[in-house]
Write a structure and sequence with these properties.
heterodimer, A: 404 residues, alpha+beta, Butyryl-Coa Dehydrogenase, subunit A, domain 1, Butyryl-CoA Dehydrogenase, subunit A, domain 2, Butyryl-CoA Dehydrogenase, subunit A, domain 3, 4-stranded antiparallel beta sheet, 41% helix, globular, B: 377 residues, 3-stranded antiparallel beta sheet, 14% strand, AcylCo_DH/oxidase_C (chain A), flavoprotein (chain A), Acyl-CoA_Oxase/DH_mid-dom (chain A)
């Protein structure tokens, strides 16, 4: 936070300025499908488009507004960035895709990094010159992050890294990685043996192999470290503190007020978008939206989406959360990601014969948007702890059920 | 789209009501007390009812002019939710709904005559349903002008606590128009009230044959009843949804407790994901019901429900009906052989779920109407 809280009129004035700028400068439809989240950047064409957009937004002074001006921000109050973020959402702009930099690495470096690290990294994060990726998950340790086995051994002024990471979003494009690696395999608690690095991706011994997704697109890589040497100055937070630092990075995700640079990390997809896209379709010779079964199912989905918004709202009313205080926050990911899965899946089902076409077919409904969106959504029901793991956590921590 | 309205308020007054309701319901409606009332004639403890009146609960929807607290119908929501959680079952919901209608639509004479007594503990009941069809807009009971006022013909079914009510609010056709009529039970011969067997044994209801009953013209509420009936159907849906949300939470707690203590194959059965994961689905369904209930409570009060309020009440009832039905069903199943017995408390919830889903329209009834509100704009 910088300075005192801005007045409502200051914020409104700023918001109007942002709105006007966006009306004029937000990119036109490029004629190809854009990613809905940063995990879906699957082609050079998409990447270059998004890189250019983020650079333009930052150049105009609307990204990292509250980050220090000496590192590329404007040193203003976080509330101003919040206004930008709201306007980006309202105007449905493309995403600001450098999410690991903007939302994880950047705020972490600003919080606990050295001046040298800040000078080296922050501006490139904002300008999209330097793309960041995250190296947490490993092939054998998906749900059990604390058990990461990639080794980092101190050797003079370097660390030598061996092992592999998987699900590295934009690993093939990234210049830097936030890397969780094991510096002390003999630590009593597995968490205490981990350290956190701001690793270059261009070092010798680091190779990425793109992973092709069910959509047919790319977006993730597997990343291999074979005696890769990175400077010891890449360590952040001190040796053995990796787990604590990793947990700290998760705190920034909640937006500008929590320290992230802001922007629009993902486009929200609503059932109302679905209804707009299928309104013109027919079933049994009648308009689809006159079919009573379709209507009933759509209302169920509308209710589910509305319940997500209301749960957010209710989280802010302590008097209505006394019985199961952790219930709403702990179940948010499960509820939201599973809702999206069901809704998008239904989005295909509703298309009749057109539902069997795919991205690239000019007759596909909305260019195959729902087909791709459904497949891509598995990133959210699997990544960050699968829905099944989430259900275990909720059952145990909210309902007090015994461990599985 | 009404989807965008996310209003939810929960003020200090409601918070204090919720706290006192929690304590009251926990003390007065222990499981042995609930069990003891099941075979009783009237189904509730008159002393508890009088204590509720003394706490002012029967006057939440009634203005101070008529002895109420003027807090508004939304204040009944936390009360009813607590009652649902402790299976404290009385004529509270129906009496509150009648009070609300009289307050809003009756004019000062009828209000003055009946509301202060209701606030003091007089039981009032709604007589609306005539068949299995909660969605039927037709009204078969008629009121015809006669020498001494109005003469009624036709019967209503599932009139809550009809045997102990002191007045009925009855939907009738009068000169081809839907109207609401206050019928004091003194005007109804006791033979006209025949008890029905409720699937939820914590409740009482009866069929009431109004044929031949006469009441004065002044008991007719002014004006066409269509909008009042629409409103009472929505508020009824909301209050029964609040009760169902409370009961679903209690049912979930009961089952979770069993899953922690019951062991099979050397492990507590709650450690099995086949049981744990459906319990999380129950939790989410219940929490969603609560969210809709308190959202709706924030949109109804003095004014006639608008589109957003209508949508919220319908979502609340649709969601709460499904949540309790699912919670009750899984409660019986997850208690295994015990769950199949009358002795196991799971039966109280699975029975309530069947009652609760129907009253003021089931989930499909409300979703069908939501479809028109949400998809045809």
């Amino acid at each position: 936070m910088n300075g005192t809280d801005p007045s409502p009129s200051e914020l409104a004035e700023f918001r109007a300025e942002v709105a006007a700028w966006l009306e004029q400068h937000k990119p036109a439809d490029p004629g190809f499908l854009l990613p809905q989240t940063f995990m879906e950047v699957g082609s050079d064409q998409q990447l270059e488009f998004l890189r250019e957009w983020q650079h333009k937004l930052w150049s105009a002074g609307y990204l990292g507004v509250h980050w220090p001006s000496e590192y590329g921000g404007r040193g203003m109050h976080a509330a101003f960035q919040h206004e930008v973020d709201r306007e980006l959402r309202r105007q449905r702009t493309p995403i600001t895709f450098n999410v690991i930099g903007l939302g994880w690495a950047g705020p972490l470096i600003l919080d606990i990094g050295t001046d040298q690290q800040k000078a080296l990294y922050i501006k490139g994060i904002l300008s999209a010159e330097d793309i960041w990726c995250q190296g947490f998950s490993e092939p054998d340790h998906g749900s059990d992050l604390g058990n990461a086995q990639t080794r980092a051994v101190r050797d003079g002024d370097d660390y030598v890294i061996n092992g592999s990471k998987i699900w590295t979003t934009m690993g093939n494009y990234a210049r830097y990685m936030i890397l969780l690696a094991r510096t002390d395999p003999s630590a009593e608690r597995k968490y205490d043996g981990l350290s956190f690095f701001l690793s270059p991706m261009e070092a010798r011994g680091i190779e990425t192999r793109p992973i092709q997704k069910i959509t047919g697109e790319y977006g993730f890589t597997e990343t291999f470290f074979t005696d890769a040497r990175i400077p010891a100055s890449c360590l952040i937070g001190g040796e053995g503190n990796g787990w604590r630092v990793a947990m700290q990075t998760l705190q920034y995700e909640r937006g500008a007020a929590a320290g992230a640079a802001g922007g629009l990390p993902q486009v929200r997809i609503s059932v109302s978008d679905l209804i707009d896209d299928i309104r013109h379709l027919r079933r049994d010779g009648q308009p689809l939206l006159e079919d009573p079964v379709v209507r009933d199912r759509l209302v169920e989905l509308i209710m589910e989406e509305k319940a997500l918004g209301l749960a957010d709202r209710r989280t802010g009313l302590p008097g209505l959360n006394t019985d199961y205080p952790l219930s709403l926050p702990l179940s948010f990911k499960l509820r939201a990601s599973e809702y999206q899965r069901r809704m998008r899946q239904y989005g295909l089902e509703l298309q009749g014969g057109l539902g069997s076409l795919y991205v690239g077919d000019e007759q596909a409904v909305a260019g195959g948007f729902w087909q791709r969106a459904y497949f891509n959504n598995f990133a959210t029901t699997i990544g960050g702890g699968t829905s099944q793991i989430q259900a275990n956590i909720i059952g145990e921590q909210v309902l007090g059920l015994p461990k599985s | 789209m009404p989807m965008n309205n996310m209003q939810m308020v929960f003020g200090d007054e409601q918070g204090m009501l919720l706290d006192s309701a929690r304590a009251f319901c926990r003390d007065r409606s222990t499981m042995p007390a609930v069990r003891a009332l099941l075979p009783s004639a009237q189904g509730f403890d008159p002393q508890v009812w009088q204590q509720m009146a003394a706490l002012g609960w029967l006057g939440v929807a009634v203005a101070e002019d008529f002895g109420g607290s003027g807090l508004g119908i939304s204040s009944a929501v936390p009360l009813v939710e607590c009652m649902g959680k402790h299976l404290l079952t009385t004529p509270f919901i129906d009496t509150t709904l009648v009070a609300r209608v009289l307050q809003q639509a009756a004019g000062s004479d009828l209000s003055q005559r009946y509301l202060p007594d209701i606030v003091g503990g007089q039981i009032a009941s709604l007589a609306l349903l005539e068949s299995e069809d909660w969605g039927d807009p037709a009204i078969g009971v008629t009121a015809t002008p006669a020498k001494s006022g109005l003469q009624l013909s036709g019967a209503k079914t599932q009139v809550a606590y009809a045997e102990v009510a002191e007045l009925f609010l009855v939907s009738v056709m009068y000169q081809g128009v839907a109207r609401l009529l206050v019928v004091p039970t003194a005007a109804v011969p006791s033979a006209a009230v025949s008890r029905q067997t409720c699937i939820d044994e914590t409740r009482r209801c009866a069929r009431v044959d109004f044929s031949g009953v006469s009441v004065g013209m002044e008991n007719l509420l002014p004006g066409d009843a269509d909008s009042t009936l629409r409103e009472v159907m929505l508020l009824g849906a909301l209050l029964y949804a609040a009760e169902a949300a409370g009961s679903a939470a209690a049912c979930m707690d009961l089952t979770a407790e069993y899953l922690k203590t019951r062991h099979q194959f050397g492990r507590p059965i709650g450690s099995y994901q086949a049981l744990k994961h459906p319990m999380v689905e129950v939790l989410v369904a219940m929490e969603n019901a609560r969210s809709f209930v308190y959202h709706a409570a924030s949109l109804v009060n003095e004014a006639t429900p608008d589109r957003d309020a209508e949508s919220a009440c319908r979502m609340a009832k649709a969601q709460a009906s499904e949540a309790l039905k699912f919670a009750g069903d899984r409660a019986v199943q997850f208690h295994g052989g015990m769950g199949f017995t009358y002795e196991c408390d799971a039966q109280l919830y699975i029975r309530r779920a069947q009652w609760s889903q129907q009253v003021f329209g089931d989930a499909y009834h409300h979703r069908k109407r939501l479809a028109s509100l949400l998809l045809d704009s």
